Amino acid sequence: MGPSLGSDGGRSVPDSPIPEESNSEAYRMAAQSTLERERIVESPSRRLAPAAAKQSPHGPVKWERQYIRALVVSDAILIAATLAATVLLVPHPTMIPVHKLSSAVSVWLVVGLIGLVIITLLSLSGSRTSRVVGVGSQEYRAIARSCFVAFTSAALFAYLFRMGGLKFVLAVGLVATAGVLVMSRWVWRRWLVAQRREGRMANRVLLVGSEASVASTARDLKRTPAAGLHVVGACTPSSRIGAYIPGTDIAVSGSVSNVMQALERVAADTVLITSANELSADTVRSLSWQLEPGQQHLIVAPSLTDIGGPRLHARPVSGLPLVHVETPRYHGGKLHLKRAFDMFAAGLLILLLSPVLLASAIAVRSSSPGDVLFRQERIGLSGRRFDMLKFRSMYVDAEDRLGELSAHPRDGGNDIMFKLKSDPRVTDVGRILRRFSLDELPQLINVLRGDMALVGPRPPLDREVRQYTDSVHRRFLVKPGITGLWQVSGRSDLDWDETVRLDLFYVENWTLTGDLLILLKTVRAVLKSDGAY
């Protein structure tokens, strides 16, 4: 039960410890001050926020609860089906002997308890919260941790109570359950992202701050519709209501002094403060009090850009929400783990793709005169030079013809990286290889040699490096990769500034989980062939 409403639309004043002698002037003033504070906190949000929520066709409470409920049902069905299939397909005793207790329990009881533990851990880990679903790797990491904790806990109990016959069931069940859940969430995410691209199942966001910060934040959010933050208005110091923010299609909905009225005007459910210079700490705090709990949200964007979540740690000190930003590290155990993964994955891919490698080599040899492999000097880790390998996709005189082509208008690439969508130097077989990125496969040998990694910034040419600004040289802090963040975000269709931004974001924030996601996205990008030429 919420607090009762007074006649003025606000909450009634709670029981006060003011004694009977409150008829004195001091106590009357204290009581009046309390009432005024209650009115400030409650008005106008308690009157306006519900109206705003009703006007939104997909209010946050409605779609969030429906989506979370669907995930719970989906997870439960898949966990039950996967564990049942494990029990039916993996050899095991029907009754598991518990030597410590001199008794036995059914294997179905064991896997049933494991399933309940996984369901509980998925909820406790926050894998279904609205701030996690749809974007980033946190959702997948939560699933992996939940499955790992559940099965390792079962293995520990099996060891302590000397329960025999569970080894294969637990090992297969862990891999199968985690894999099925991740694939299921990936499918759900694709559906949710499609909905959000259409403006549905997303939070309606009101940006608050200077015009420059509002425009910058709006562009960043527009690039990532999967985040579910759909901008519907803005509040700026100028309060030119109806005027558009320069460079955007966002109209000013109010000033920074009447955010709650603007929130109702555009039926928004989320306030995002893009710059705190225009609002005092007391104003931001008062605004947070006025927002309807569970219905409206407050987000504050710090003056940090391109910083990944794992490097950010919130630490409240004396009421100050301090954000610690860890400096990126390019050495240590995490880097050794990345190298071990690269070597294992590259060797495995060469083995699995050997028929494709052989067929590509034969096609290149028979299509035009010249070597099968094309070697080109590139710049790698710490500025070291190495020969990058590719299947030859151009005629042998391609480098000699570069000068005459560079004077022609470009129909691809960007100011630094020379690309042509209809490059006359590319052979017919080369176009097919490039379309599906098969010409890049010999770089798996570069990975085994240690010149490259599976994921990282693309290794540039020396002529490209000579045009770099100082900040772009940070790309050389990590090994170049066969694929990377910019390749799965548009490839050759991106302009130079966006390419650099994505590469530097990777350099500053790479994780092994992020590498795995990029590799999965690479498969999709290759099949779609967008930006490949």
From TrEMBL:
UniProt-listed InterPro entries: Bact_transf, EPS_sugar_tfrase
Residue ranges of the TM segments: 67-89, 101-122, 142-162, 168-188, 344-364
Limits of the Bacterial sugar transferase domain: 338-528
Keywords associated with the record: Membrane, Transferase, Transmembrane, Transmembrane helix
Localization per record: Membrane
Its membrane topology: Multi-pass membrane protein
Coiled coil: none
Region (Disordered): 1-29
Gene Ontology terms, MF aspect: transferase activity
Family: Belongs to the bacterial sugar transferase family.
Designated name of the protein: Sugar transferase
Organism per entry: Microbacterium deminutum
Lineage of the organism: Bacteria, Bacillati, Actinomycetota, Actinomycetes, Micrococcales
